[in-house]
Amino acid sequence: MVLDLGPDHPSRAGLLEINLQATAGIVTAARILPGAMHRGVEKLFEARDYRQILMLADRHDWQAPFFGELAAVEAFEGMLRLTPPVRATWIRTLLAEHTRILSHLGFLGWLARDEPELVARVRRMRERLRDQFAVLTGNRVHPMAVRIGGMAVDPQEGWLATEQALMAEMSTLVEDLAVLPLPGEGLARVDAGLVDAYGLSGPLARAAGVPLDDRTQGVYAELGFAVMRLGTSGDAKARFALLLDECTVSADIVSACCTRLPEGPVQVRLPKIVKLPEAESYTFVEAPLGRSGFHLVSRGDKTPWRMKLRSPSFHHVAALEEVLVGSPIEQIEVILASIGYVIGDLDK
């Protein structure tokens, strides 16, 4: 059985096999077979210096590449005890929430599958969000905007004005999506026990009422946004509703960053060769799908001794073996559409 979750859904890349057993149309067992992509990125990290690693970290979650480079840089800066300029931190927040919307819309487009005009609007919005990245960074998909100690880009007045107008249009689009009947009520419930057992995070955990949201410090606290939204039922419908709500919150955060962006430099001076001190750390960020982080071990050289990627997709897909059991076969598409994963993020 081949499922099509829409032209923008990351599952369109394939490369994930799900073997199901069913009785009377109800799933009784599920086995997930990942690994077809075999990226081997963690060993590639160990053969690159810390600046080169950003290019590889940018490429595992291709729905939200910005968060890969952001998570890597924050891991490096933490071990260096390096604080980026204030303006750079605000720009990182702005682009992070811009990317969150871009990622969420890739999953939410499935809701409008029976509304061709609305599907077209979702696709156009995603293209315009990518175009904004292209104007700012020169690359519409993989921005490569973050640098150790700051940013490689500095948005100016014209770009910020366009971004604010785009956020207003995006909020209207989300309102129109929210009018659609949300499927999946009572379907594929996730509870706190499952969140803990599989290390689930992001919207998947928050829809189950588990308060996992690490956007609570720095610029987020200064902006005064209560970014955490929680569901109660943990079913597919709650997951769709939470994604819609988070798009609206992210648009508000982006608009606030555009309005309040402080003046100042965006980069600190660094030596030609960056070496991290001999130490070990674990750092993560709140990516669109959940906690994306790095376990980093340095021996004081210009390359990491070990660098392990913690990707939310891996945990989400592992949990499918339990989440899918008890669900009707004809509802598998709804369940998969509501649980976020990206193959590059999975087959690390």
What does this structure look like?
The protein is of the alpha+beta class and 348 residues long. The chain is built from 13 helices and 7 strands. It has helices at residues 41-45, 53-57, 65-80, 86-108, 116-137, 157-179, 192-198, 202-206, 219-223, 236-260, 312-323, 332-338, 343-346, and strands spanning 17-23, 26-33, 146-147, 150-151, 279-287, 290-298, 306-310. The strands form 3 sheets. A 3-stranded antiparallel β-sheet has the order 5-6-7. It has a two-stranded antiparallel ribbon with strand order 1-2. Strands 3-4 form a two-stranded antiparallel sheet. β1 (17-23) and β2 (26-33) form a beta hairpin. α4 (86-108) runs antiparallel to α5, α5 packs antiparallel against α6 (157-179) and α10 packs parallel to α12. The mean pLDDT is 92.
Search tags:
348 residues; globular; 3-stranded antiparallel sheet; 46% helix; alpha+beta; 13 helices; 7 strands
Per-chain topology:
Elements: E1 17-23, E2 26-33, H1 41-45, H2 53-57, H3 65-80, H4 86-108, H5 116-137, E3 146-147, E4 150-151, H6 157-179, H7 192-198, H8 202-206, H9 219-223, H10 236-260, E5 279-287, E6 290-298, E7 306-310, H11 312-323, H12 332-338, H13 343-346
Antiparallel strand pairs: 1-2, 3-4, 5-6, 6-7
Helix pairs in contact: 3-4, 4-5, 4-10, 5-6, 6-10, 10-12
Name the average pLDDT.
Answer: 92
Strand content: 5-15%
Helix residue percentage: 40-55%
Task: State the end-to-end distance.
Answer: 26 Å
What order do the helices and strands follow? EEHHHHHEEHHHHHEEEHHH
Please give the number of β-strands. Answer: 7
Radius of gyration: 20 Å
Read across the widest sheet, the strand sequence of neighbours is: 5-6-7
Low-confidence stretches: none
Number of helices: 13
How can the largest sheet be summarized?
Answer: 3 strands, antiparallel
